[in-house]
User: What shape does this take?
Amino acid sequence: MAFQPSDLAAPVAEVPQQVAAPTVVKIVVAGGFAVGKTTFIGSISDIEPLSTEAAMTEHSLGVDDAGGVSDRKTTTTVAMDFGRIGLPGNLWLYLFGTPGQDRFLFMWDDLVLGAIGAVVLVDTDRLEQCFPAVDYFESRGIPFVVAVNCFDGVATHHLEDVREALQVPAHVPLLYTDARSRAATKAALFNVVRLAMERAKAQAQPVG
Assistant: This one.
């Protein structure tokens, strides 16, 4: 029986097209205990957020600061929160939330490694709790924005009053946000990215 050449030819396997690796950008979300960091990341993450929250027990009394919200806050982040956002242009935004308790501050240096900037969430009823975060990013020269979390959807203080109380320099953006709102969270992150780009552009310009 005669065979046509096409009958005997081995099938040609399709060569899979290489997919370019995504560009990863890292932003840190910081602030005091119960300020809304876990909620902030969860409201915008495209994936199920990774949360390392643990129940607060009687063993934490005298060690952890419940920030005056112990009646409505029964868990605390003990390592970090993590979320991811996919953006146009094959860009992935990684969000890392810092633990709120002072005894976990030693982890911050690892969490901020490689970050382009940070969001410092603020509860105006407990302003003193965000001082460590503001001081941390200022001392390390990491771009950051201060986002006042409006828990009830209503701002109770003017932004300039918050700036004065925190002694935040004029070049640091201040804005209102709502950690429960994807749109508000997105706006805060956009400000961080814009600030980081402006910083990188300024540093790239030749001196003199």
Remarks:
- The chain has six helices and seven strands.
- Residues 56-64 have pLDDT under 50 and may be disordered.
- The beta strands are 23-31, 50-55, 75-87, 91-97, 117-122, 144-149, 174-177.
- The first strand starts at residue 23 and ends at 31.
